[in-house]
Amino acid sequence: MRTITSSFDYQVYNSASELAEADQELLEKAKQAVATSHAPYSRYHVGAAVRLANGIIVTGSNQENMSFPAGLCAERVAVFAAVSNYPGVPLASLAITATADTFEVAEPVPPCGMCRQAIVEFEMKHGNKIRVILGGHSGKVYIIDGMETLLPLTFHEAGLAK
Ligand code: THU
Questions:
Q1: How far away, in angstroms, is 4 Cα from ligand 1 center?
Q2: Catalytic residue at 75?
Q3: How far, in Å, is the centroid of ligand 1 from the Cα of 59?
Q4: For residue 96, which of 47, 81, 119, 126 sits 20 to 30 Å off, Cα-Cα?
Q5: CATH label of the domain that carries residue 70
Q6: Tell me: the pLDDT tens digits for 36-94?
Q7: DSSP per-residue string spanning the chain
Q8: Which residues line ligand 1 (CB under 6 A)?
Q9: Which domain holds residue 27?
C-alpha cells in the first residue's frame, strides 16, 4: 500500500479589480448574467460566462424548475450554449459568480461536481485547459488553471470513444 497526495495551486485575488482586464471583463459578464437566472426555489442566482478561443463570450444562468431535477446550473447552460452555437471552437475561460436573495455571497462560487465533469469533457475534446475564474458577489476571486485541476482522478475512458 502507498499513499499518493494530490494538491493543486490556484491564485487568490483580493478583489475583481486586481484581475487582468480580460478576466475582469468575463467576470463582469457573469455578474450581468445573474439577472437572467430563474431561481424561485433556491433564490440563489448563478451567472456564468464562457470565453471561446475566437474571443466570443457566451453567458448563462441557472434555470430551475418546479420539478427540481429538471433544472440546470448556470455553467452548463453557458457551456452548452457556447458549444452548440460555435461547434468546434475550444473554450478558453469560464467565469462564475452568484447572488442570493437572503445572504451576501462573499466567497468565490465553485462549480458543482456535475458541471466539472460536463466541462472537463471539452478540455479533453480540444486538448486545452479552460481557465476558471471564480467570484462571489463581492470579495476574493480565485483563478484555477484548468477544469481538470478541480476534478482529480477525472473519469477518462478512452475505450468508450472506440
Ligand atoms: N447552481 C449552479 O448554477 N451552479 C453550480 O455550480 C452550483 C449550483 C445552481 C443550481 C440551483 O439552481 C442553485 O444554484 C442552488 O443549488
A1: 31
A2: yes
A3: 15
A4: 126
A5: 3.40.140.10
A6: 999 999 999 999 999 999 999 999 999 999 999 999 999 999 999 999 999 999 999 99
A7: ----------EEESSGGGS-HHHHHHHHHHHHHGGG-B-TTT-EEEEEEEEETTS-EEEEE-B--SSGGG-B-HHHHHHHHHHHHSTTPPEEEEEEEEEESSS---S--PPPHHHHHHHHHHHHHHT-PPEEEEE-SSS-EEEES-GGGGSTT----GGGG-
A8: 39, 42, 44, 46, 62, 64, 71, 73-75, 111-112, 115
A9: 11-151
